[in-house]
Amino acid sequence: MSGIPMERPVLAEDEAAALSGLAARVRALAEATVLTSVGTAEAAAVAAEVEALTARLAAARRDAPPFVPSGERRMDRQIGNPVTGALNPLAPPVELTVSSDGIVRGEFTLSTVYEGPPSYVHGGVSAMVLDQVLGMAAAASGTPGMTATLETRYRRPTPLGVPLSVEAKASRVEGRKVYASGTICGPDGRVTVEATAMFIMPQRFVPHF
After folding, report:
1. Burial call 164-173: b when 16+ CB within 10 Å, e when fewer
2. How far is Cα 149 from Cα 136, in angstroms, rounded to an integer?
3. Cα gap 47→44, rounded to integer Å
4. Nearest alpha-carbon partner for 122 in 97, 92, 150, 85
5. How would residue 197 be classed by pLDDT, with cut points 50, 70 and 90?
6. pLDDT tens for each residue of 16-40
7. Around Cβ 26, how many Cβ atoms within 10 Å?
8. In contact, 118 and 161? CB cutoff 8 Å
9. I need a surface site. Which of 5, 16, 27, 59 has the fewest CB within 10 A?
10. What is the value of pTM for the model shown?
């Protein structure tokens, strides 16, 4: 379906907790898959078990990722978000807070699943995290929008396996446009990646499925 709004299922608290726990286990499985040194026979056996488990989960499917009821902003409800969603095994996930002055902050650690250059974070992953945080900063300004431009500058390699911090804030609003900037810092406080972005509030938002 294209251009037709779709009601999203809303998870009860216990269901959200159970599925978030499942996603955490799948996240751990992904890291174990990247780092495992088991032999070919054991890898094949585990693959067969994973295939069977996947079939069990796929036996009942929703038409779209679900929401949770908490949160004042739409993105707070998107538990399947690939950056912050506890339900999404692809997400680290990054936990973010928004202060009263509109600054979005968070701390996170990225495992080897997100490796680009050996022992460092893939640049695309850093950009994805910053896009999310900058978007939240734009929304905090009162004019939420969709990414129109995103410019990243990589100051130094971002290390894996250590606490990283991210911060962003909207700088100005011009009609439906919001401009924001943000950074990712290593544990030593030095900036590893900085970014600026422009977001545009659609005149009419219709989800595409």
Report:
1. bebbbbbeeb
2. 15
3. 5
4. 92
5. very high
6. 999 999 999 999 999 999 999 999 9
7. 16
8. no
9. 59
10. 0.89
pLDDT of residue 94: 92
146-159 as b/e: b if 16+ CB within 10 A: eeeebebeeeebbb
Residue 9 is predicted with a pLDDT of 87
Cα–Cα dist 66/199, whole Å: 25
pLDDT tens digits, one per residue of 42-87: 999 999 999 999 999 999 999 889 998 865 555 567 899 999 999 9
Say which amino acid occupies 196: T
